Amino acid sequence: MLLKTKEVANLIGCTSRNVALIVKSGKLKPVNNHKDFFLFDAKEVELFNSKKRLSNGN
Q1: What is the pLDDT of residues 18-54, one digit of tens each?
Q2: Who has the most CB within 10 Å: 1, 7, 27, 42?
Q3: Could you write out the DSSP letters of every residue in 2-56?
Q4: CA–CA separation, 58 vs 19, rounded Å?
Q5: CA atoms within 13 A on the CB side of 15
Q6: Nearest partner of 17 among 4, 31, 2, 5, judged by Cα
Q7: 35, 30, 43: which is closest to 4 by C-alpha?
């Protein structure tokens, strides 16, 4: 299942802009190479979110 940037932002609790910054930092990789929008694999987002929760101690 593919997710749009806004859907990812809702899942991880941040803004679409923050998702773009996370991609730029290399912490999350989109499945497409389009310059105007990102699509993400739902499993990758879940993995990122679980790592984020662990690093925050929640």
Answers
A1: 999 999 999 999 999 777 889 999 999 999 998 877 7
A2: 7
A3: EEEHHHHHHHHTS-HHHHHHHHHHTSS--S---SS--EEEHHHHHHHHHHHHHHH
A4: 20
A5: 3
A6: 5
A7: 30
Q: Which residue has the tokens 């809702």?
A: 10
Q: CA-CA distance, 53 to 51, in Å (whole number)?
A: 5
Bridge partners of 4? 39
Surface-to-core class of residue 19, CB atoms within 10 Å of its CB (0-12 exposed, 13-18 middle, 19+ buried): buried
Which single residue is written with the structure tokens 């989109």? 30
pTM for this entry? 0.84
Q: Which residue's structure tokens are 């979110």?
A: 49
